[in-house]
Every structure is written in structure tokens, then in C-alpha cells.
Structure prediction request, 415 residues.
Amino acid sequence: MRIAIIGGGPAGLMAAACLGGAAGVFERGGRPGRKLLLSGGGQCNITHSGGVGDFLPCYGGNGRFLKAALYAFPPEALLGFFRGRGLDFIVREDGKIFPKTLNSASVLEALLKAVRAADFHTSTKVTALRGVSGGFAIETAKETELEKKPLAEKKVYRADKVILAAGGRSCPHTGSDGSGFALAQSLGHTIRWPKPALCGILSPGFESLAGNSFRHTGVAVFRSENGGGGAGRLVLRGEGDLLFTHRGVSGPVILNLSRYIERGDTLAVNFLHPRNPEGFLQAFSAVVKKEPRKTAGTLLAAYSLTRALEDFILARASIPRSKTCATLTRAETRELARQLVRFPAPVAATEDFHSAMTTAGGVSLDEVNPKTMESRIVPGLYFAGEILDIDGDEGGYNLQAAFSTGYLAAQSLAL
Ligand SMILES: Cc1cc2nc3c(=O)[nH]c(=O)nc-3n(C[C@H](O)[C@H](O)[C@H](O)COP(=O)(O)OP(=O)(O)OC[C@H]3O[C@@H](n4cnc5c(N)ncnc54)[C@H](O)[C@@H]3O)c2cc1C
Prediction:
């Protein structure tokens, strides 16, 4: 075959749709696009409103790499591609774009209709990839139920060129378990340490707050050099909605910070964002002085948080709800204020790849030409999608990156 695409996810399928009969696809799952089906809670947040300039800052420090791919296939072109195949879209108030069907299966169906691949090998895992004279040898084995049964029916194919779009390590039960990294590595590529991203944080002790969510919080991440003790230095900040879970904290602000958060960090949550914590400490002390008859409970209730959080804060500060402002000590006043604007949440770990929506890390971007997606190490080898060291914020940025890089790899190959 002329071109082999390894991986039948959004990146590989978009490349296949662009390459028509010139390409064959290898997908280890019984059917392609299983992660796409899970996306957006089954509704598929396919992309986000805004232009390329708005997208680039949403990929951590690596957004620049995507510039050519996003210009080659920007959000409007992606929506146009699907509109041409019968889908329509809604733009939510927060800018997230979904198919009008609110059903990711309709996106996958439209995408598969566009794929006219010469061969489509499902339940076929690529187990090795070797450079041979004038192309590649692709070793495969039949795989049923994703490694629950032994690999069988080994076969070797030949291709002139290869697009490696085997995903990262997030949600491995959908097929992307990191085997694409091993294939890239076997051809000499460096893999930047893969880490779960777009995931919650494990932080025990907040079980009584599970289900409580807060709009527009500010979150600061502190890290101590020796990995424990002390306040640590501020390493980054984020803002957005926050949700307590049975295992710790999650919600958009945490998901977007998760690519940077490490075990041993401490999060400081400002429930009154954008109020400045320093200024608030003073203002809060002034209120306590001015309202001696107010109880600690009524004092906290004025900030429109949840009753569960008020109770949690009071218990944490060992202050009875009925205690009056007149009897609050200075230290107690400061502690209450601190809990409102610098609520500490120690990080035991990030959630693992099973719950992560994407992978931070992957094939080193230094080794890939961003204008073509071709390897700088192995001519004829191209990359697309989550396998690259690119991960976006939540909001449709990851699917857009997968589609745009798949499109650009295919266009470059077709030239
Ligand atoms: C629960 C969840 C919800 C998400 N929601 C959204 C959302 O709403 N919006 C958004 O933008 N992003 C979302 N994402 C992220 C998005 O789904 C991914 O960024 C995207 O699927 C990456 O596409 P990909 O084609 O690079 O990789 P994948 O979708 O992982 O596809 C890779 C494919 O390669 C196959 N494969 C792997 N190794 C081999 C091999 N050795 N041989 C043959 N085949 C192989 C796999 O089986 C898989 O089908 C979500 C992710 C998850 C897990």
C-alpha cells in the first residue's frame, strides 16, 4: 500500500478521509473511534469558538507547534467538513461547540462515511514498525478484545509512507495504551515523559464536600523544593469552575492545571476570586470588628458558598458556628479568611491514565516538522493527534488538534 495509517481515532480517520483510496488503516480495536464516542460525555465537544490566535495559548507551552496545522485546517474548516456531511452545530455560551445531535456517534458516523480507505484492518494491532528500503515494514497481529486474548495471525505489510496516529495513553481501554510511543521510539524518536492530563486531583479528606461545585474560583499551585513541608513557591495559577469529588478536586480549572500538577504540591483555592487574598484578609478583619454580634456561621453565609463548605471551614478552623465575632481571636479571624481565599488542598497524586482525558508528553516536537507533521529523523514517517507532545485545555481543543494534525499530515503526504 502507498500510505499506512496506524490508529483509527479522530486523527487517523481524518487523515484517511483526506487520502481516499491511497491509504490503508490499521486499528487494533474491533471498531474505530472509541475514544471519540466517549468525548464530551458522549455529546462530543468537537471544537471551540474563536480563531487560530485564540487557540494557540490553550495548549500549554506547546501551542506554537500547532500554528501551521490550525491554519491549514482551522475550526471553521472542521465544522465545514462535517456540515458538508449533514451535521449541524451549536455554540454554547462558554464557546464550546457540539453537534446539534448532541451525540458523538453522529460525528463518528459522518467521519467514517468520508473515509474511502483502500483497506481498513480492524482488530489489527501494529506490533512493530521498521524502516526498509524505500518504505516501511508494518508487523501486525490480530487482536480481539484488546489483549484479553493472545495475539494471533501475525502478518507483515509494506507501505511507502506511514502516519502514526495511535494516540497517547489516556483511557487505555479505548485502545490507546501507549503502544504508539513504543513504535515511534523503535524508529529513534524521543518520547517526552507521558503524564495523565485533563484529569482530577486526588486529595483525601474532602468526602463531605463531594458534589459541591463553585463558579469562577482562583487556584494557585505551590511546590516545595524538597517535596514536602513548608508553604512552597508559587508555580502557577488558574481560574475557573471547581468541583469537589469523592477522591479530591476536579472541574475545568483543575483539569486545565492537571498537566503541570505534581504529587506533593499544595493547591490554594480562592472561593472569592477575583478578590485579592491579601486585601481580603484585611477587609475580613474589619467586618469582624464592625459586627461583634454576628456569629461565625452568619459571617460565612454572607459569601454565598454552600452550607457544606461553611461547615467544613468552621470544622477545619475548630470554630463553632454560633461563636460571635466579638469572641473570635485574631488567629481565628485570620484562619477563617484564609480558608475562604487560600483554602489548602494537598495533592496526593493526579488521577491516573484511566480517568485522564488526554496525555501530556509524547513524541518530542523537536523531532517533527510542524509545517508537514513529518519526522525530522525518519523521512516518510508522519505523526498526528495525541501521540504528539501536545495537549489542550478542556473545551474542544484536543479534538481540534487531532483533526488538524491528521489533515495536515495527509495534505503534506498527498503533495
Ligand atoms: C472521556 C474523554 C472525553 C473526551 N472529551 C473530549 C471533548 O469533548 N473534546 C475534545 O476536544 N477532546 C476530548 N477528549 C480527548 C480526545 O478524545 C482525544 O484528544 C482524541 O481522541 C485524540 O485522537 P487520536 O486520534 O490522536 O487518538 P485516539 O482517539 O486515542 O485514537 C488512537 C487509535 O489508535 C489505536 N491504536 C493504538 N495503538 C495501536 C496499534 N499499536 N495498532 C493499531 N491501532 C492502535 C487505538 O485503538 C485508537 O483507536 C476526551 C477524551 C476522553 C478520554
User: Anything to note?
Assistant: Residues 397-414 form the longest helix (18 residues). Residues 6-12, 26-29, 32, 34-36, 38-40, 44-45, 125-126, 165-167, 170-171, 175-176, 179-180, 357-358, 385-386, 396-399, 402 surround flavin-adenine dinucleotide (CB under 6 Å). The CA atoms of residues 73 and 404 lie 5 Å apart. The domain at 3-196+355-414 is CATH 3.50.50.60 (FAD/NAD(P)-binding domain).
